[in-house]
Structure formats: C-alpha cells, structure tokens
Amino acid sequence: MPSLFRFLTVVAVIAGIVYGAVFALANFVNPKPREMTVTIPPDKFLKK
C-alpha cells in the first residue's frame, strides 16, 4: 500500500505543477492586440 500512496502523491504534485503553470500563463501573460484582416471569397455568400 505505501507504493500506491507514493504514486498518488507524485501524480498529485505533478498535476499541481501543471495547474500552476496554466494558471500563471492565463493570468500573467498579456497578448498584444493587433488588427486582423480576413478576405472572404464572394462565393461563400451564395446559398446553395
């Protein structure tokens, strides 16, 4: 049984590190806003 607890502890620590990294990326990295132009071909407007 102790090896199961050790395994679950290691998995929980790794999950916590991954969660912390995703949280840090979501809150501390600010994307640079920029303009975007998308050209849509006219045949996309025709209904079939």
Can you describe what's shown?
The structure is a single chain. This protein is 56% helix and 0% strand. The chain contains 1 helix and no strands. The chain has one domain (1-42). Keywords: Kinase, Membrane, Transferase, Transmembrane, Transmembrane helix. One of its GO terms (molecular function) is kinase activity. This is Histidine kinase. It comes from Bradyrhizobium manausense.
Q: Quick recap of the structure?
A:
The protein is mostly helical and 48 residues long.
Query: How many strand segments?
Result: 0
Rg calculated over all Cα atoms:
23 Å
| Chain-averaged pLDDT | 91
Please write the string of helix (H) and strand (E) elements: H
- Domain count, please report it: 1
Structural class: mainly alpha
- Provide the β-strand percentage band: under 5%
Q: Enumerate the spans where pLDDT stays under 50 for 5 or more consecutive residues.
A: none
Q: Span from first to last CA? A: 64 Å
CA-based shape: elongated
Figure out the total of helices: 1
Largest sheet: none
Fraction of helical residues: 55-70%
Topology record:
Blueprint: H1 2-28
Features:
elongated, mainly alpha, single chain, 0% strand, transferase, kinase, transmembrane helix, 48 residues, kinase activity, transmembrane
